[in-house]
Amino acid sequence: MCTLLLHISQAQTRLQTGIAVNMGTEDKPPHVEISLSTNNETVICAVMVFAEGIFEGETHVLHPKESEVTSRLDVALYPPRDVPVDIHIKALVGYEGSQHYHVFELTRQLPRFSMYAVLVERTQDVGSFLSFVINERLQRVSVIY
Fold first, then answer.
1. CA nearest 85: which of 29, 19, 145?
2. Is 0.85 topped by the overall pTM?
3. Taking the CA atoms of the chain, what radius of gyration do you get in angstroms?
């Protein structure tokens, strides 16, 4: 059971985040995944994600069973295409078995085109192409492999 009491954990505890596109499976559609992890032996008890236009009611709470609590938690997001979204995250982090947790607060922005993934492998031969002129530096429009 998570108790919303503030406990000062180790000063070196950090909540690390990562954002990646998950291409989905037969059971789960493509989505953006936010990975949260701690850098030491602390665990993530619960995560609250606040984002406008992504969730019904604008809030999503992820609270794993006590037996499934670990130092890493992945949150699936299904944002609308081509719209940047501000995400506010509150995570309860503490020691396993503890009833006291530290609340970490983060704000991240999903990029405008976060629902797009780079194809590394061609599945079919491309028979056409597009040519255009753009007034931007190559580094701003090119994906480097």
1. 19
2. no
3. 19
